Amino acid sequence: MKPQKVKWGVLGVADIAVKKVIPAMQRGEWSEITSIASRDEAKARTAAKELSIPKAYGSYDALLADAEIEAIYNPLPNHLHVPWSIKAARAGKHVLCEKPISLTAEEAKDLLAARDQCGVKIGEAFMVKTHPQWLRTRELIHTGAIGELRAIVGAFSYFNRDPGNVRNVAIWGGGGLLDIGCYPITTSRWIFGAEPVRVAGTLERDPEFQTDRLASAVMEFPNGHAVFTCSTQLAQFQRMLFLGTNGRIELKIPFNAPNDRPCEIVVDDGRDIFGGGIRTESIPVCDQYTLQGDAFSRAIREGGEVPVPLEDAIANMAAIEAVFRSAESGNWEIPERLGGTALHASGI
After folding, report:
1. What domains are defined for the chain?
2. SS3 state at 104
3. Looking at residues 204-219, what average pLDDT do you find?
4. What percentage of the chain carries pLDDT values higher than 70?
5. How many CB atoms lie within 10 A of CB 218?
6. N or C: which end of the chain has fewer CB within 10 A?
7. Interior/surface letters 138-154, b for 16+ CB within 10 angstroms, e for the rest
8. Which residues contact 75 (CB under 8 A, 6 or more apart)?
9. Which DSSP symbol is given to 195?
10. CA separation, residue 207 to residues 72, 202, 234, 279, 340 (Å)
11. Is the peptide bond before 100 cis (omega within 30 degrees of 0)?
């Protein structure tokens, strides 16, 4: 028996929505995109026509008033994530919100309160946590394929100096750390299965935009270290390395995983530095946005947990904020804990 699909509405016509997430969710078994909204109704109608979406609205409020819609996908600019997700929750809608969930951990707590008051599900759209290459990597590490995990090394970069791009507008939450540095932070927390004890960071800001264009950080975990560099003004590149006492694992395209070719996990047993112990696991072709949408929709239908719940999102924001603080203070900084206790990375 086919599942009863969850009816989704989309706030805005952001590129990630119309080019990646919506087409992917439309291929899902559990998700149905029924509506899209834009503050420019013509843009909403154009997107709806191109993507075969039944309804288009000229305002976000009008979409939220649609009683048919059960869940909202929020891909708006970063500074609008919390305000419109709260409005959606108060309208009785479940919410899948793009990363970063907020601009600060404190702001995200307001969203947590709204979730609990309204009795809806709200999660952060870290699609990587539903991709089979990450699930397999996590399984390999947790079953001892590389011995004891002791270090994680990451890099994520692209080049964008378009002054009109939201990623280059500081007051809207632009900059590399919020846009892409959040990925090595959340995956390091997830793979270590713990929160960073303390972090140290350094930033270089664009002299025109005042956004961080180059950011690097060290995160100390109870059982090891994670280091990463991210940039909005370097050659396009991404990689994640997991170094253990007996070997290593490498993800070649960890974050923007292609949906038209297999992904590869490189596993090295460490016998020599020439790659004599390397084997490669191929992950079949899939679309992580389809998987993310279906996992969220299934959680709605079956009453389970969403892939990245708000508690985890707040913990990630706390780590991000600690990197920012460290870059200013020049000292190690301790990430804030929700309610005074550590927030452990969620699993799937």
Report:
1. 6-127+292-307 (3.40.50.720), 128-285+315-340 (3.30.360.10)
2. coil
3. 98
4. 97
5. 17
6. N
7. bebbeeebbeebeebbb
8. 10, 11, 12, 14, 16, 17, 21, 98, 125
9. -
10. 37, 16, 16, 45, 37
11. yes
What is the value of pTM for the model shown? 0.95
Give the integer Cα–Cα distance in Å for 234 and 212: 12
Tokens of 189: 């927390």
For the residues 55-67, what does the mean pLDDT come to? Answer: 98
Residue type at 83 in one-letter notation? P
Distances (CA, A) of 124 to 39, 44, 72, 315: 23, 24, 12, 12
Q: What is the pLDDT of residue 2?
A: 83
Rounded to whole angstroms, how far apart are CA atoms 174 and 168? 5
CB 148 within 8 A of CB 120: no
Burial class from Cβ neighbours inside 10 Å (0-12, 13-18, 19+) for residue 183 reads: buried
Calculate ∠ Cα 124-20-128, nearest 5°.
Answer: 40
Residues 6+ apart with CB under 8 A from 217: 181, 185, 199, 200, 201, 202, 227, 228, 323, 326
